[in-house]
Every structure is written in structure tokens, then in C-alpha cells.
Amino acid sequence: MLSLILHGRKSLELQRWRNLRFAVNPLQYSSAFSSASASLQDGRKGHNFTASYLVTSLGFTTKLAESISKKVSFEDNVNPQSVLSLLRGYGFRDSHISSIITNYPGLLTLDAERDLDPKLKFLKSRGASTSELTEILSKVPKILRIKKDKTLSRYYDFVREIVQADKSSSSEFEVSLPLPHVRFEESLKKVLEMGFDPTTSRFVQALRMLYQMSEKTIQDKVNVYTRLGLSGEDVWEMFKKWPTFMTNSEKKITQTFETFSKCGLVEEEILSAFKKFPQCIGASEHNCVDTGRLSLW
After folding, report:
1. Which GO terms of the cellular component aspect does the record hold (predicted)?
2. Is the pLDDT confidence value at 63 over 60?
């Protein structure tokens, strides 16, 4: 009898606990659902406003505007309008601006006065004409992502060379090699895939190296190093550390190897020095000795 009573009490307590749990949880689930729902609605509101703004302000098609709104969104026109006003003040036409925003929609979220105006002023101060500035930035707007003036000027000058070469190639009747802008896009993609930071000078160096050298030339360079005992992966890791090392001729590469050997380094130590300090390749004998010592630490 006592066991039945105890069992009944336990069952009653268990039932009360279940009732309490389900009495509380619906409120929690309801609150969480409401918060998620509100967040989703805010996101849709931002995407809808962005798409509508791009259609009315820049004449984008609905399809293109909706596609861009998935990459960037804003809930009012204050910031994007200030960006557009600044660009127009520098002589950018709507066709230029449309091209820029299509390729770099994040530009509309930047602070026009703090982030963009100083860069445009800097480029103008270097002698860039309005026609040159608008043409180059409409082709490669992500130049404006770069923060440091020195890197910005290097990247801008390099792109300018490509644009000028593109014009020359386009005027020819037959072009046996890929057009410069196609080569540029391919080289840019490779450099980004390697993990180079677009805001650094090393990024510009790597881009220049890959753009200026043909696939055959690059492979020939890699083959020289693999014959010495390095792997292809080793060579590209060296490239990440010091992109300009790829310009060294086979003669310079082998001479550096021989110099290290004369200094008493064995093959394994020489290859280690190459991997750690690719800038030593082609250096003077004195610098090679110093590098060899460092590589042993």
C-alpha cells in the first residue's frame, strides 16, 4: 500500500514538472521566433530598399539590382547618395558609376568624405586627368579598397599600363595573344587565390609578375628550382614571401646556389636558405654568406 502511495506521489510530481516545463517553453520559443522573424523582415527590408534605390538612382535592371542587393544592402539613401555625389563631383558619368557599382557594390557603404575623397584627391594630385581617372577606376574600381598611398599609386600605375596596352591591342587587326584586360583578370584571380592582401605592395608586385610573364616563362622558372631539389609548392611559397624573386634568370639562380656551396653549405641547407629568404637569390656573395648564416639558426 505504501509503495502505491509513493508511486502515486512521484507520478504526480513528474506530471507537475512536465506541465511547468511546457508552460514556460512556449514563451521562450515564441520570443525566439519573434526575434528571428523581426531580423528576417529587417534584412528583407534592406534588400528591397537597396534594389529599389539601384533601379531608380542608376537605372539598373531589376534583376541586376536584386543580385547586387544580395551582396550589399542599406536601409536609407544617405550614405550611397553621398558616394554618388562625390563621384559625380570628380567627373564620373552615370555610365562610369554603373560600371563601378556593378563590380564593386561595397563602395556604396563606404564613408564618402573619410574613405573615398582622400584617395581621389591623392590620385588627382599625382597628375591623373579626369578622363584617365574615370576610365581606370570604372574598369578596376577595387583600386579604391587600397589604404596606403604608396601601394595605391603602384596599383593605379600598373592598371593604367594595362588599360593603355588594351587600347593598342584593340586597334590591331589580329591579336595572337589574349587581350591585356583578359590577362589582367586571369592574373588578378590567381593572386587573390594565393591569399595576397590587395591593400599591400606585395600584392601589386605579385600581380605584376604574373601578368608580365607568360605561362611558359613561369613554368620554366619553376623547373629550374625543381631541378635543384625544390618542389613546385616550395616555389610558390617563396613567391608569396618575395614575388620579385621570379624575375631571376636561370644563370643567377645557379650562381647563387654555387656561391652558397662554396661557403660550405650542403644542398639541404642551401634549399632551406632559398625557402626562408628567396630575396637572397641573385644577391652579392657577401649577402649570400650572411643569409646562409641566418638560415642555419
Report:
1. chloroplast
2. yes
